[in-house]
Amino acid sequence: MPRHNVRQQIIDAGLKVLIEKGFNGSGVQDITAAAGVPKGSFYNHFESKEALGAEIVDVYGRDNPRRALLGDTSLPPLQRLQAHFERLNANFTAADFGRGCLLGNFSAELSGQSDLIRERLASLYLNWSSDLAAVVAEAQGDGSISTKAPALDLASFLLDAYEGALLRARVEKSGRAFDRFMTVAFDQILV
Amino acid sequence: MPRHNVRQQIIDAGLKVLIEKGFNGSGVQDITAAAGVPKGSFYNHFESKEALGAEIVDVYGRDNPRRALLGDTSLPPLQRLQAHFERLNANFTAADFGRGCLLGNFSAELSGQSDLIRERLASLYLNWSSDLAAVVAEAQGDGSISTKAPALDLASFLLDAYEGALLRARVEKSGRAFDRFMTVAFDQILV
């Protein structure tokens, strides 16, 4: 098997393991075991667990299906925003609230520990917020959302509030926090 | 020194160490070293690191100065809510965004790992939300906030959104997320 496949296997397995068990809760061996590759091969591909973590943040941001959904102009912009958050709700609910979002988890766990990962997280926040802001701006353009607040501010607030709601949903093992988020977001903020 | 002082020293040190380094990022030895007590003494007082973690969540909720501030009826309720969040902003900013809130950090790191701690976190969320909701209800009573949404829903949404804003502030090492939170909370939600 060519080297780049081992590398990809480690990234795929790392994404799962690190979301489920946390960065500090999982070792290189957990990741290579999940990838089905020899432990020794890890350091042929990554300098450290931190380097893998940083790359995984980039992959998580880049390969996320949100872009396709938010860019689907066959739906009006407000409906696209709603569908985006409903899809997230459905995914986390289907996983019985057992795992979180890599972005939120790493932000809580690693902001004070790794500047490398922290900077990648900052890029991911900005990219995701910008994707949402483009749709908010479109809705401001067609008059379905007021232009009182800048689109990027509204979008960034919503993303932060969603990450917070997810923390609570996981603790309560219940979607009540998602329901509250949808109500306040679409009745009081995106108006 | 009587035994209960060692216990308290471990709790005090544990609170600091676990907020700074995370639950899985710190060992019992880090905590006893920070407490200045022999490592062996830990298990005279706590069954496990998990048991200490659960107790620390309770302590963090109980001894928090928010209750005094939210209960200070010399200020109108909306001002009290504002002062509450401004105080949190100031504390995290003064710490250069280097540490988070134990509630948010543990929610991200431990919801999937420890049911014991998860249940204590759920109680803390409920207590904190209820403290906020009492003040929201007071503001609804004097007409400064609309009664359209139930006080506990608004309060719970705000707490979740705040925990999310804090995650982003730590990643960005900047108070912009706090500024956005204050604007949206007090211009669009508590209205």
Automatic annotation (TrEMBL), chains A, B:
<dbReference type="InterPro" id="IPR036271">
    <property type="entry name" value="Tet_transcr_reg_TetR-rel_C_sf"/>
</dbReference>
<feature type="DNA-binding region" description="H-T-H motif">
    <location>
        <begin position="27"/>
        <end position="46"/>
    </location>
</feature>
<feature type="domain" description="HTH tetR-type">
    <location>
        <begin position="4"/>
        <end position="64"/>
    </location>
</feature>
<keyword id="KW-0805">Transcription regulation</keyword>
<protein>
    <submittedName>
        <fullName>HTH-type transcriptional repressor DhaR</fullName>
    </submittedName>
</protein>
<dbReference type="Pfam" id="PF16925">
    <property type="entry name" value="TetR_C_13"/>
</dbReference>
<keyword id="KW-0804">Transcription</keyword>
<dbReference type="InterPro" id="IPR001647">
    <property type="entry name" value="HTH_TetR"/>
</dbReference>
<dbReference type="InterPro" id="IPR009057">
    <property type="entry name" value="Homeodomain-like_sf"/>
</dbReference>
<dbReference type="Pfam" id="PF00440">
    <property type="entry name" value="TetR_N"/>
</dbReference>
<dbReference type="InterPro" id="IPR011075">
    <property type="entry name" value="TetR_C"/>
</dbReference>
<keyword id="KW-0238">DNA-binding</keyword>
<dbReference type="GO" id="GO:0003677">
    <property type="term" value="F:DNA binding"/>
</dbReference>
